[in-house]
Design brief:
Length: 398
């Protein structure tokens, strides 16, 4: 969850409160008070704004996030969301900065280089003028999502609080709970809201990311529906196989019935056959599916390498043919060819660098149980038809 302390206009605490929310110390004290609320694991202040990041190779827009230096400590849960591509995740110096991989690539930045952040401030006369502040790049980080890595620049909280103008930034307190998906999450949110001074407002993570959350939910429902269709088609194949089995074994069924076998016993045997067919699919399919899911990133990487081998071979073959034709016709334009561009199955510009994998064992168990039940259900019709076979009519035909 997230507490929005101020955005655009300065906010003040209640008259009986000692907090001064227009200062860095006041916001930090508010974060410390919120950490004492039951169900809260950690709370950290932040000031966030926009600016212009400039380096030796150019400039680009950036979202400047000023956070406490201890937020990137090795034992911090926040640091686990990021990967250091170069340098270290360190904000110990007042003029240190951590830059996303996208900005670092655009500005050709490396650890130890200087990055200049251009922000706006209001002069005593009321004019808005630019402010240029230099920082030293301590590390290049990545959250696995290129769109965010092309925006973020992290700086220490105290430096950012004075650097970012109040009317062009937002002061907030990020809150980490014990379980963001648990049944007590809303109760914790209500406790936090009771502790907030006037002027502050509470926003849940589901409210902040409503569009993405709905997108992921609809994608999940679509994948479940597709999986259901796959299981349904497989169950129809089981039913068809039992129909063919009953037709091929009509003589054996007639002999068993003439020897005293009951219709119920025949029906049970065919139902058990359908159950075994579904059980064999579950026993073989689920372990293979789990193995593929756990190693999906490696599988995609392997497929990507194979595709690029053939793509590079075709590129070299086409280039050689064009050069040969260009030399024969003395046409240099035919022999010119662009550089080879590798194929990317999951372009990081549109997808995550790696697909996160979480195994919902409850859902897997439900799918396995549903597959077995569906196998028995679709086996009912051919089983009943096999049990109704009349031995005399069947034996006369043979």
């Amino acid at each position: 969850m997230q507490v929005i302390v101020g955005g655009g206009t300065p906010l003040f605490a209640d008259e009986d409160s000692e907090l001064e929310l227009e200062t860095a110390q006041g916001v930090a004290q508010l974060a410390q008070q919120l950490e004492e609320v039951p169900g809260i694991v950690a709370a950290f202040p932040e000031r966030q704004g926009v600016g212009l990041a400039a380096g030796a190779q150019g400039r680009t827009g950036a979202t400047i996030r000023s956070v406490p230096p201890h937020l990137f400590a090795p034992n911090s849960s926040f640091s686990r969301l990021f990967k250091a591509e170069a340098g270290s995740l360190n904000l110990s110096s007042p003029r240190s900065a951590l830059v996303g991989t996208g900005i670092a690539k655009t500005l050709a930045l490396n650890p130890g280089d200087t990055i200049r952040l251009v922000t706006m401030r209001t002069s005593p006369t009321g004019k808005v003028i630019p402010r240029i502040t230099s920082f030293t790049v301590e590390g290049i980080l990545s959250c696995g999502y290129q769109e965010l890595d092309s925006l973020w620049v992290f700086i220490p909280f105290d430096a950012g609080f004075s650097l970012l103008e109040g009317s062009l930034s937002t002061v907030l307190v990020g809150i980490q709970t014990e379980d963001a998906f648990g049944e007590h999450f809303l109760e914790t949110a209500w406790r936090v809201e009771d502790q907030l001074p006037s002027g502050c407002r509470l926003r849940l993570w589901s409210q902040l990311n409503t569009t993405q959350f709905e997108n992921f939910s609809s994608t999940r429902i679509m994948l479940i529906f597709i999986m259901f269709l796959i299981v349904l088609v497989a169950s129809v194949n089981v039913s068809s196989a039992l129909v063919m089995l009953a037709m091929e074994r009509r003589r054996e069924i007639a002999i068993l019935k003439s020897m005293g076998a009951t219709s119920g016993g025949i029906v049970t045997s065919f139902l058990f056959t359908g159950f075994c067919a579904g059980g064999a699919g579950v026993v073989m399919g689920i372990p293979v599916g789990i193995l593929c899911a756990v190693n999906v990133n490696g599988i995609l990487s392997w497929i990507e390498r194979i595709v690029n081998i053939f793509a590079r071979f075709w590129y070299n073959l086409k280039t050689s043919c064009m050069e040969l034709v260009g030399n024969l016709l003395s046409d240099e334009s035919l022999s010119a060819a662009g550089d080879f561009v590798p194929v990317q199955l999951l372009d990081p510009a549109f997808y995550l660098e790696e697909i996160p994998v979480v195994l919902p064992w409850g859902g897997i168990f439900a799918i396995a149980a549903g597959t077995l039940v569906l196998s028995v259900v679709v086996s009912a019709l051919p089983s009943v038809r096999a049990g109704r076979e009349k031995p005399l009519d069947t034996l006369r035909k043979f």
